[in-house]
Write a structure and sequence with these properties.
This protein has four helices and four strands. It has 221 residues and is an alpha+beta fold. The chain has a domain of 83 residues: Alpha-Beta Plaits (2-Layer Sandwich). Strands 1-2-3-4 form a four-stranded mixed beta sheet, with helices on one face. Strand 1 and strand 2 form a beta hairpin.
Length: 221
């Protein structure tokens, strides 16, 4: 009986002891599970926030090129200096007058080509011009008046029977006989106008006179 009761007591204690151990184990497990759940609840946002945050320093340390510094604006361009207005233009001189400061051109000699008149014999003028020569440059006009050929020059009165006067007279003689067919040619080569009008320097006085040297008509009796 003793042994049986002893066994019963031992058995009862063992059962009592077993229930306590199981309670303690369950409480411990429940506490650990609660702690784990709490840790997950608290730690998850921290890990999530740490992963979502950018890492500028880490990226900079990895060799990222920083943005260039802002460039300063260029200096303003200086305005060009004001230009002075151009000087007023000088009006051109009237036609026929030389410009101020210009050397006046020498006057052209009054030749038959530049001093024609309404009485100029144009055919005779053209004939004399074809022959040319220095003597033609002294001619101022050629006229046919009353059947006479008069050659006006710029020669002085002292040039009577001069070479140029004789040449002009001979040319006039050929013009009348060869071009006009005049039987009794009369030619007068005259000096420039003076106190005595236009003195005769050389002449031919009709068919009986074939020499251009100055012939003075005999005074009337």
């Amino acid at each position: 009986m003793r042994s049986g009761g002893h066994l019963a007591r031992r058995g009862g204690r063992r059962r009592t002891t077993g229930r306590g151990d199981r309670s303690w184990l369950m409480e411990t497990a429940v506490g650990a599970a609660a702690a784990a759940v709490l840790g997950l609840a608290v730690g998850s946002p921290l890990y999530a926030g740490r992963d979502a945050e950018p890492r500028p320093l880490a990226e900079g340390a990895a060799g990222a090129v920083p943005p260039p510094p802002p460039q300063s604006p260029p200096p303003p361009e200086s305005a060009p200096p004001p230009q002075s207005p151009p000087p007023p233009e000088t009006p051109p001189p009237p036609r026929g007058e030389p410009e101020p400061g210009a050397t006046p051109a020498p006057e052209e000699p009054r030749t038959a080509a530049s001093a024609r008149s309404e009485h100029t014999d144009l055919e005779a003028l053209a004939y004399f011009a074809e022959s040319g020569g220095k003597s033609f440059a002294r001619v101022t006009d050629i006229r046919t008046v009353g059947g006479y050929l008069r050659v006006y020059t710029d020669l002085p009165a002292s040039a009577a029977d001069s070479r140029q006067a004789i040449e002009l007279c001979e040319r006039g003689l050929r013009y009348l006989t060869e071009e006009r067919g005049t039987a009794d040619p009369v030619v007068f080569v005259q000096a420039r106008s003076g106190q005595n009008g236009n003195p005769v320097l050389a002449n031919v006085l009709g068919a009986g006179d074939d020499d251009c040297r100055l012939t003075r008509p005999a005074p009337a009796r």
